[in-house]
């Protein structure tokens, strides 16, 4: 199934190390815009830095895969201390394949995390890895994204996991 979602979360910081361990996930391929921060924002969303620190301390390997160009991705990834793939060509498997190789893991050990059905979810399924869907941090204002989000509605999950515990 092309739009299968392994689990859906309110936000990226609701993904716990316990959930990852229970699902055999040792590495996360992270989308950038509307997953870790809002579009074109150089600052991570609230709680993301603490969440990343928790993931790193737990031994979870992390890598950003974004369709954005390097001038957008590079400073953000460097600020977070994360490796990255820019121009990942999602939903094609190029960026996912490169990330798994760089992380030194197998596809069975990895999950993708993102907010878009036609790039993140479709790409994860084409590459045959687990997909952790997160709600977009904010809704985009452009006509393109408004239309795209409307077309995504039939494929959106109905239930979301929300972590009620503190990340720290």
Describe the structure.
The protein has 168 residues and is α/β, with parallel strands linked by helices. The protein is 35% helix and 14% strand. The chain is built from 6 helices and 6 strands; from the N terminus they run βαβαβαβαβαβα. The protein starts with 6 loop residues before the first strand and ends in a 16-residue tail after the last helix. The relative contact order is 0.23. The mean pLDDT is 93.
- Proportion of strand residues: 5-15%
Query: How many whole angstroms does the radius of gyration measure?
Result: 14 Å
Averaging pLDDT over every residue, what do you get? 93
The arrangement of helices and strands along the chain is EHEHEHEHEHEH
* Low-pLDDT residue spans: none
Q: Estimate the helix proportion, in percent.
A: 25-40%
How does the SSE layout of this entry go?
Blueprint: E1 7-9, H1 17-22, E2 27-30, H2 48-57, E3 61-65, H3 70-80, E4 84-85, H4 94-103, E5 110-114, H5 117-127, E6 130-134, H6 143-152
Parallel strand pairs: 1-6, 2-3, 2-5, 3-4, 5-6
Annotation keywords:
168 residues, alpha/beta, six-stranded parallel β-sheet, globular
Overview in brief:
This protein has six helices and six strands; from the N terminus they run βαβαβαβαβαβα.
